Amino acid sequence: MTRDIRIKMCGLTRLKDVDAAADAGAAYIGLNFFARSPRYLTLDAAREIAQAVPEGIAKVSLTVDADNATLDALTETVPLDMLQLHGSESAARVVEIKARYGLPVMKVVGIAEAADLTRLDTYAQVADQLLVDAKPPKGADRPGGNAVSFDWALIAGRRWSLPWMLAGGLTPQNVAEAVCATGARQVDVASGIEQAPGIKDADLMRAFVQAAQG
Ligand SMILES: O=C(O)c1ccccc1NCC(=O)[C@H](O)[C@H](O)COP(=O)(O)O
To answer: How many angstroms is it from 190 CA to the middle of ligand 1?
Structure first.
């Protein structure tokens, strides 16, 4: 029996990645606007990729503590279905962004220890989705996409009143175990489906979906 797991493939940088993600069965694709990321896209490149995404696959922007001018330009240029906030945006800022852009917001919370879990409850009050990711390792130069996992036992059996995704160091080799350990119905992956930073691999994308869905 297969598992009904929805998959977000984050940090697509090429048009051919869109075809590969769609063929593999992604439910969401992520477009990265963090300038220090190997997955960073200019607005024009992001628009071209977003316009190629088939109906039914949600297009998600990823920003880190972006100001209104940045988000204005982004939402005016790129067709989007959801905004992923991957910085230290406050709950009030989440509310403000939801109201200003009229798009669902997914707030990322980095987890390293049990004390980090309370932030999930805070954002569950205001966001449309949660993304439960690993906290970046010390010295990392970006807050996500670092190919590190957290201890899945920390959220085993935890449920929130809104949809949520599991992320952090997921690969075709470990995603089935991660789903079983946490009960996640949605997962997010960046590094684990790449042949090099920012370069997705169609075979790994297919293998990831097969492993996640069983
Ligand atoms: O991918 C990046 O370079 C990145 C940069 C800045 C903030 C977030 C970033 N990626 C976030 C993602 O959505 C990743 O899918 C998530 O953190 C998991 O990444 P990975 O462990 O590489 O699968």
So the answer is: 6
